[in-house]
Write a structure and sequence with these properties.
The chain has about 240 residues and is of the alpha/beta class. The chain is built from 10 helices and 10 strands. The strands form 2 sheets. It has a 5-stranded mixed sheet, with helices on both faces. Strand 1, helix 1 and strand 2 form a beta-alpha-beta unit. InterPro entries: ModA/WtpA.
């Protein structure tokens, strides 16, 4: 049986393994996947690690590999956006998402820019806020805490959702992360999930870089209607 080696963005973990099992059943090809912040995974590939396919939480990293001649093909296969997770016992129920971010006593946690696309998207959100609310976005850029997704970030305990764990452990009162986690976060009794208005939100493009011809069947699989629908049900798209 052919076995493919894949590096995939950590935010894909909840849905990726069931998708890869469906792919194995239909193609007879096994997929071994290592998850992590997409920026750090790209660095591993650039440093010579051999992989068949890289599934990134942004388009820029796969395009960089294509420009370097490391990737053969790049395609966007799904989308994401941002949401805000807050601690129920430390953030008033009547505060809207922007009120939370503007509150001087609320520490805002994020992923790490450059290492993790979620952090890059969050900085884009701050830029969008700054355009309408002068000084607010800039203050957030200066005070936000990059708590996960970096090369030296503390590991999220097994079985924990990063946003819930960070606010539960008192590392921040609010965390900006991917909306694909919203359904799972809603099941946590000690946090609330707030939507970020579309006018400010960021469209996160997820793209794969096919790095070897033997990964072509997997590339085609990721673009099928069935996969797109499964990702949509999981909060993507």
């Amino acid at each position: 049986m052919t076995t493919l080696k894949v590096l995939a963005a950590g935010s894909l973990r909840p849905v990726w393994q069931p998708l890869m099992e469906s792919f194995r059943q239909s193609s007879g090809i096994k997929v071994l996947t290592d998850f992590g912040p997409a920026g750090l995974l790209r660095q591993r590939i650039e440093q010579g690690e051999r992989v068949d396919l890289f599934a990134s939480a942004n388009l820029a990293h796969p395009q960089s590999l294509l420009a370097q001649g490391v990737a053969q093909r790049v395609e966007v296969f799904t989308y994401n956006r941002l949401c805000l997770t807050v601690a129920k016992d430390r953030v008033a129920d009547d505060l809207l998402w922007l009120d939370v971010l503007r509150h001087p006593d609320v520490r805002v946690g994020t992923s790490t820019p450059h290492a993790d696309p979620s952090g890059d998207y969050t900085w884009q959100l701050f830029d969008n806020i700054e355009k309408t609310h002068a000084g607010v976005g800039e203050r957030l850029r200066q005070t936000a805490l990059p708590l996960v997704g970096g090369p030296h970030s503390a590991a999220v305990p097994p079985g924990e959702l990063a946003a819930a764990w960070l606010v539960r452990s008192g590392q921040c009162e609010a965390f900006i992360g991917y909306a694909s986690y919203a359904r799972r976060l809603a099941a946590c009794a000690d946090v609330r999930v707030l939507d970020i208005a579309q006018a400010y939100n960021v469209r996160a493009e997820y793209a794969f870089a096919q790095c070897h011809e033997r990964a072509a069947p997997l590339s085609q699989f990721l673009l099928t209607t069935a996969v797109r629908e499964r990702l949509r049900l999981e909060g993507f798209g």
